Amino acid sequence: MDAQRLAEILTMAGLSVDSVAALADDYIFEIEVTSNRPDCLSVTGIAREVAALTGKRLKIPLQTTDHRPRTTGCRVVKISVEDKKLCPRYTGRVIENVRVAESPKWLKNKIAAMGMRTVNNVVDITNFCLFELGEPMHAFDLDKISGQTVIVRKARKGEKIITIDGIERKLDETMLVIADKDKPIAVAGVMGALATEVTASTKNILLEAAVFDPVSIRRTARILGISTESSYRFERKVDPEAVLRASDRASGLIAQEAGGAAGKIVDIGGKAAAKKTLVLRYGRLNGLLGVSVPPAKVKDILQSLGFRIRAILKETLTVEIPSFRQDIKAEVDLIEEVARIWGYEKVPLTLPPIPSNQTERVEKERVLAGRIRGILTACGFDEALNLSLLSSKDLESANMLDYDIVSIENPLSAEQEVMRPSLIPGLLKSVAWNINRKARGISLFEIGSVYLESGAKGFTETKRLSMVLSGSSSGSWKTAPQGFSLFDLKGALDALLKELGLEDLELTRAEYPFLSKGASASIDLKGIGPAGCIGEISKETLDGYGIKQKIYAIELSLEEIFKNSLPRARYKEPPRYPSVTRDVSIIVDKGTENARILGVIKETGGAITANVETVDVYTGKQIPSGKVGFTYRIEYLNPSKTLEDAEVTTLHSSICAALTARLGAELR
Predict the structure, then answer these.
(1) Distance CA 270, CA 83 (A)
(2) Contact, 66 vs 58, CB < 8 A?
(3) Residue 413 carries which DSSP code?
(4) Is the domain of 429 the same as that of 542?
(5) CATH number, domain at 478?
(6) 638-652: per-residue pLDDT in tens?
(7) Tally of domains within the chain
(8) Do 494 and 636 reside in the same domain of the chain?
(9) Is 238 strand, coil or helix?
């Protein structure tokens, strides 16, 4: 098969081939192997995949009669395992009278193709078998092992070892080592010691093949700063049943290339584990894949991947999981195996069924959130998206430490310690970021969830809308740039609520920890109640974010707005009769709320007071100290007749009298 074609097939089956490089008359595939497939960290594992994908037979190299290791009366090495949890299986085999020399050409070529450095025939054979079968092995110079004793144990306090790379390494009590009677001779599963390495003078060797705990090997390798081909495989689990096969294969190759006589293998912990079986339902497989795979094909695929079929029934297949596939845990894993070998390209492209049981509330929220985005964008605002996690410093800067904060038990960083109780801190950081990049006018909004501690549930999650304005407008050819004010923000809020059918808005003086006193108010909606707040961010809060210019902000709870907003399509009959407008200018105490003045005007004017607008606020030389002047434009409209001038004059006079009597206003 063409190499590129084979690379495509492997990639589609889940083994991503990153590159294909020509090497003489062969090819090197650079394959990305996921952490759950350690069986593919070997040529045999990849060959098994290729056999299954192409319908060919897997041929695993076996020892020939001529080169089978000879069992002789070799010396006996005493082997003991003190920590069987960290080393569930350990094997050792003595091979005497070997001839350590330069590797033959075929072996050198294979070692080079693997990207490794050739050492000698014995070491190269262990590395060759590592890549061929996926089982790491290590050869010790037997004559340098003190007392002919091998102990698998944890390192002792203060012990050191010089590894074969010539570096002295300090060990700790958590690390597993291979030791002789006097000292460590290898860091288990990671690297051997320089003192017992196989050299040209070596005559007798001890061939090790074992299984080590993945977590222990990973921790040891990280602490020591070593990553080897052996540790990489042990960290991802090796096949416990491959230990003897790998030892036999290496022993046979050593006999072939280096001579020598092999003794009996010592196998500690080699008791076979119970085989795991799973039941695969054809109906479940076809239901998940959306395609009918013939039962005979299912059986062939699983067998080609090394699974044993234990029972075949009309509706099910009982499968025994091989020891090298420790990633197979459930029926769905078997289904995935069938799907990737069968071919994902054979699964038809179909749209998933759309459930019809979505609640009206969820759908309405989604639609309304989209409408809000459209309205605010039309008003010149940009949408901001901030993380739901904040630091305690952010809350301190925003004066929100007194909120019922939801803290994270194990935060990834100091920047993600708490869940946000408000959208304001995130928006203030966004404003600061834009100011630092010389943005002139900043108008942002954000729709998102906030989180507060509550009773039995632990926390409540609610939707909020926040808006901020800062800086000035860009201006145009006929208008100069003008600084934003609280009234610009209020205008955007009015436009938003009007579009949502919530036009009855009232502002009531209130204080909030992040807003300036005297420049903050509660937002009350008729029939709903308090829905949020509006105001100027306090100087103390601005200082916490390093901001020097004024910022105006709104935060609204969207829960009630979602419930009470009206559909987009609304009809209002245009007036049949003309309206009459009159202005009234008054002087009141500076502390008088605009909402109170508007309330008196609307209450006194009654039904024919169609609209009231604030057209001017004045504090000049003609206004006494402690006072402020307002001018209001009142529109009178009777939907059933044309208003007469005398009628309007009488009503307007009544409004002026009410303002004077109830608010102590002085007419200008």
Answers:
(1) 15
(2) no
(3) S
(4) yes
(5) 3.30.930.10
(6) 999 999 999 999 999
(7) 5
(8) no
(9) coil
User: Smallest Cα–Cα separation from 552: which of 598, 483, 611?
Assistant: 483
pLDDT band at 65 (very low <50, low <70, confident <90, very high): very low
pTM: 0.58
Q: Is 20 helix (H, G, I), strand (E, B) or coil?
A: strand
* Residue 61 counted as domain residue: no
**CATH code, 336:** 3.30.56.10
Output the CA–CA distances (angstroms, integers) from residue 534 to 142, 374, 408, 488, 531, in the order listed: 82, 21, 30, 12, 10
Print the domain residue range for 287.
277-346
Shared domain for 365 and 508, answered yes or no, is yes
Per residue in 458-491, pLDDT (tens digit) is 789 999 999 999 998 877 777 778 889 998 999 9
Question: What local confidence, expressed as pLDDT, does residue 355 receive?
Answer: 67
Q: Are residues 157 and 305 in the same domain?
A: no
Q: What is the pLDDT of residue 445?
A: 96
> Read out DSSP for 266-333?
EEES-PPPPPPEEEEEHHHHHHHHTS---HHHHHHHHHHTTPEEEEE-SSEEEEEPPTT-TT--SHHH
How high is the pLDDT of residue 621? Answer: 81
Rounded Cα distance, 172 and 129, in Å: 31
* Domain assignment of residue 575, yes or no: no
| pLDDT for residue 650 | 94
> Quick one: which of 322, 205, 325 has its CA closest to 272?
322
Q: In what order do the strands lie in the sheet with 389-390?
A: 389-390, 418-419, 406-407
Q: Is 170 helix (H, G, I), strand (E, B) or coil?
A: strand
